[in-house]
Structures are given as C-alpha cells and as structure tokens.
Amino acid sequence: MHEIVSWDAADLSRAVAGRQVSCVEVMEAYLEHIERLNPRVEAIVGLQDPELSLREARRRDEQLRRGERLGWMHGFPHAVKDLAAAEGLPWTEGSPLYAGRVAAQDDLFVKRLKDAGAVVIGKTNTPEFGLGSQTYNHVWGTTGNAYDPALTAGGSSGGAASALALRMLPVADGSDYMGSLRNPAAFNNVLGMRPSRGRVPTPGFTAQLGVVGPMARTAADLAWLLSVMAGPDESAPASLSEGGERFRESLDRDFRGTRIAWVGDWGGHLATEPGVLEVCRSSFAAFEALGCEVVEVLPDFSPDELWRTFLTWRWWANLERHPLYADPGTRERMKPEAVWEVEHGIPLSALDLTAAAESRDRWYAALTDFFASYDFVLAPSAQVFPFDAATHWPERVGGRAMDTYHRWMETVAPWSLGGLPVIGMPAGFSEGGLPTGVQLVGRHGADFGLLQLAHAYERVTGWVERVPPPLLGRPAGAGG
Predict the structure, then answer these.
(1) pLDDT at 1
(2) Residue 479 pLDDT > 50, yes or no?
(3) Where do the structural domains in the chain lie, given as residue ranges?
(4) Which of 180, 196, 381, 416 is catalytic?
(5) Is the model's pLDDT at 475 over the cut of 50?
(6) Catalytic residue among 22, 156, 157, 430
(7) Does the annotation count 241 as an active-site position?
(8) What is the mean pLDDT of the chain?
(9) What is the pLDDT of residues 25-41, one digit of tens each?
(10) From CA 212, how far away is CA 202, in angstroms rounded?
(11) Residue 227 annotated in active site
(12) pLDDT tens, position by position, 237-296
C-alpha cells in the first residue's frame, strides 16, 4: 500500500497545501491502489478514463503554483455515490432503467466538493434506487465487504464505505434515509454521519427523511468534509441557516459528567443476531473512561407506532417512482422491493399522511423531553453482522421472521424520523472478526457536539487504525 493512501484526509490536505506532495502524485497513488483492490470488492464504479483524472490533477498543481488553493479537498480523488448526479459521469441509481444515463450537471453538494478542490473520478456503488442495506444491482454488480469480500458491505452507501475502509478514497459522501450512512459504516469499520435535517441542503419544502452526509475514517475528517457540504442554499428553503465554518474548529472537549442513554434492542422489541448487543455494550467502557455515565433507558414512545409511522413516510417518499411503476414495461424491470414500496404508497390517503405527520411531531416532542435528562443517545447501528453477499436480505434474525425486506434495519428508523444528527461509529468485532458499530445520537442542530464526542471516543478506541482490513496487507485482529 502506497504511503499516500494510508494518510487521513486531514494529513493529506496539509501535505498538498504545503506542497510536500503533488496532486499528480496523489492521483497516481490512488488510481494504482484502486486498480489493485477495487476488482476484489467492486466499490468504485463508472471510473472515468485515468488520463482525465490525471489531467485534472495537473490543473490542481498549476493552481497551487499560482497560489490558488481551492479548499480543503484540493487535489483529492473523490467518487460520488451513484444516487447523486456528477456532471459527465454515469448516474444510474443502480437501476437498469437508467443504465445509460449520464449526468448533465452536478447536484449541489457535488458542486461544493468540486469548489473545495475535489477531483471526481467516478461513482460509488449503491443498491437499486438506494433501497435495502445490501449493495447489489444489475448495472454494476455486488459490492463486497472490506473485511471479507464474500460478505455484504451494507448499504445503501456500501460502495462508499468499502472504498473508504480500503483506503481507495480519502473521504466519501453518502446519503441516508434508513441507515444508509450508518449501517455500511458499521459493516466496514468506518464512520458515517447523518447530519441534522437541513444541515446539508437538499431542494424542496417537504422535510422528508433522506439526507446527504459525510463518511470518513476519523471524526476530524467527518467534520471537515461536513464543513464543505453544509450551509444554506436558495434552492433548499428548509435548510439550516448556519454555515459550515464551525466544523473546522478543534474537536477537543471535556465530557466528564455527560449522560448517555443506551436504548439497546428497545426492551426486546428489535430482533438481533447473537453477539451484536454484546459488542455494542463493550463500547460503554470507552465512554466511561471519558467520564460519561451510560444508562439503559428508553424514550416514552411506542416502538410499534414508530415503525408504522416510518413505513408511511417511506411509502410516500417512494411514490416518486410511480411513473416507472405505471408503465408495465418499466415496472417489470424494477427491483421487487421498489415495486413493493410504490404499491404500498398508492393507497395512502391524505388522512394517512396527516396521521403520520402528527405521529412524527409527537415523537419529536418525546425526544425533546428525553434530551432534557440525557445529553446523547447510544444505539446499535445494525441488528446483524455482515452476511453473505449473495443474500438479498436476512429473512430471519435472532430466530424471528422479518416481515419486510428492511425490518432487520429498524434500529436506525427512530432517529431518521426525528431528523436528529447521528454518527455511526465502530464498536468492535465479533469472535469471527466481523465489524459492527453503534449510533451516537444528538439533539437536532447539535452536530458539532456530536462530532466532539465521536472524536473523544475515537481517541480511546482507535478501531479504524487498530484493525485495518486484511486486504490492505496489514495485520487485522478480532475480538470485542
């Protein structure tokens, strides 16, 4: 492994800015590393001609010679999740219906990455339409886990997480409706952050549950990437007014006296694979070493109502694909789970949506009360360990049958509904060496404090650096 690709993004940014390494050298190192490892996992897809990427790297070097450093990501090779548009590159959403589509312009956050100096070299793989936390599709194939390519990388930001863990990218972007930044982070021993609703602007008035956010191998890199992605925009009337500058400040902070609520499996409501909760609970020691108190307690709200409410919002969101469903010719080529979502969305009435909105409001009120007593919430990021990549989704978990294709991911749904900031962080490994993680949840708008605690936790645990993927050729360990 080339030394350059082993650097954290913050170190890479400083080295480029200080002219200790050229952008061409960075690009060559990453392209060589991608060529060697990507065929094992198929994480990066739609890779553009390497010469185009090198040409852009030369332009970045010329800019530096003129004293024109664009920003924190100057010269970074970057691949955009294939649910988002990056001008001139494939934009398939993992669907054969869009297999030939090429983006004509950049999504807003992609433009911001480029404005900060990133060189977009390709896309990262995702399940069709981002549905299901298992990254496979009929356009690009299946993405393998960084720790065992025969297993799933999770999803829907599975390509991003696997590429990041294998040091094929300095940082990565992802998106999250139902854990798509958190579940793959857990499965690949990296970090994924779902920011507060409105932190990273997306067009439209309706506060749907999907958000765009950063992925990284350190909390500091998460913060710096968020500083690039965050901030209001005219196209997004529901965006938060605060800019991204705050996320460039020091993350050091004293957490003595902090109270953390552990929700676990919600008193047995969630089905979990044996061993998952034990690994997650092992994270308590790190928080306690920081002076935090971890208390097992639940918000005062029915988890059954939370799930019903979540389903209604998700069915409503997926009606955007109704035009594809309405045409029998395209419907038969859609992923069955996408058809299922649309067919459940079609019968929804205005009364159903009103009830779901009211339920979401009451849940947010319950969370507000909960955070009056606790500073943060801790929860499992996943209910299972990484499973066989040939399995579309687990039909049974902990001896219980799953009644939907995504019920095994229910642990992430409450925080999506609340619009809260959440960081998925490594928690450790199973006895068989498979990674899992915990969700650290904060109050709405308190993204910076959340990053500070993630940074403190990381300094105690060091999972990413301590247990790299075996494919990197460095020793990897196991155990809780």
Answers:
(1) 84
(2) no
(3) 14-302+356-472
(4) 180
(5) no
(6) 156
(7) no
(8) 97
(9) 999 999 999 999 999 99
(10) 8
(11) no
(12) 999 999 999 999 999 999 999 999 999 999 999 999 999 999 999 999 999 999 999 999
Buried (b) or exposed (e) across 293-303, using 16+ Cβ within 10 A? ebeebebebeb
- The CATH number of the structural domain formed by 14-302+356-472 is 3.90.1300.10
State the pLDDT confidence band at 476, using cuts at 50, 70 and 90: very low
- 111 catalytic? Reply is no
Using CA atoms, how far apart are residues 340 and 131, in angstroms rounded to an integer? 11
**Is the sign of the CA dihedral 253, 441, 162, 467 positive or negative?**
positive
Task: Please tell me which residue in 13, 22, 53, 81 is annotated as part of the active site.
Answer: 81
